[in-house]
Amino acid sequence: VIQRRGKFPVQQDFYKDWQSYKNGFGNVSEEFWLGNENIRVLCLEGCKIRFDLVDEKAEKRFALYQNFTLTSGNYTIKVSGYSGDAGKQF
Predict the structure, then answer these.
(1) Quick one: signal sequence residues (predicted)?
(2) Architecture in CATH of 3-84
């Protein structure tokens, strides 16, 4: 899990600066962002990524990408190999 958002007693502020998103923030037991650099290092050998989505009607969807990388420096996301029910626009 690289990010969690939800209805927790203490809401995490996600309006952060670039350095915060690079390093990560929040509480891993509640809402958090793992950090761009941490994610990049975890995926140096290549990895998959899955997005689990829940809308305001509690309907669930997902998007799975078989190939996920994050570039160094500007942390550009590169994905391919989509499957799921979130729709190809995701």
Answers:
(1) none
(2) Alpha-Beta Complex (3.90)
pLDDT in tens, the chain (90 residues): 999 998 898 899 999 999 999 999 999 999 999 999 999 999 998 899 999 998 889 999 999 999 999 999 899 999 999 999 998 666
Q: In whole angstroms, what is the distance from residue 48 CA to residue 80 CA?
A: 9
**Strand-pair category, 60-70 with 77-84:** antiparallel
Alpha carbon distance 64, 74 (integer Å): 23
- Coil, helix or strand for 5? coil
The DSSP call for residue 13 is P
Domain ranges of the chain: 3-84
Question: Which residues sit opposite 29 in a β-bridge?
Answer: none
